[in-house]
């Protein structure tokens, strides 16, 4: 088991969260994936190992992990939220055609909250940046049609 999984399991135990096999599987999937899956994606990935697990169980675990700050819920206006496990602050590029989400790591933007607070007087509690466009795969498909 990876160190990240072990650290995250410890955090769950610190919050008195019971570690069920399904909960651990959802956590390990989220840590191991480079996609930004929906709850349905997680369900499809794990349903072979846990045939009696429902989509509601997946949603409940994702909501729990979100409330504890373990994963981030990304609602982009489509029908389903996407979820992201990340240990470092980052941003997202989103394809307008297929919905693919790609991480962007750009540490120079880390100061944006301080700058915004200084310019506006707001007590900034967080920020999110999204870049929208057409991914390379969809660009190729468009060129072929």
From TrEMBL:
| SUPFAM superfamilies hit by this protein | Winged helix' DNA-binding domain
Task: Establish whether keyword Kinase is in the entry.
Answer: no
Tell whether Transmembrane is among the UniProt keywords.
no
Mind listing the UniProt keywords for this protein, alphabetically? DNA-binding, Repressor, Transcription, Transcription regulation, Zinc
The record's comment on protein family reads: Belongs to the Fur family.
Under PANTHER family, the record lists: PEROXIDE-RESPONSIVE REPRESSOR PERR, ZINC UPTAKE REGULATION PROTEIN
Q: Supply the name of the protein.
A: Transcriptional repressor
| Naturally occurring in which organism (per UniProt) | Latilactobacillus graminis
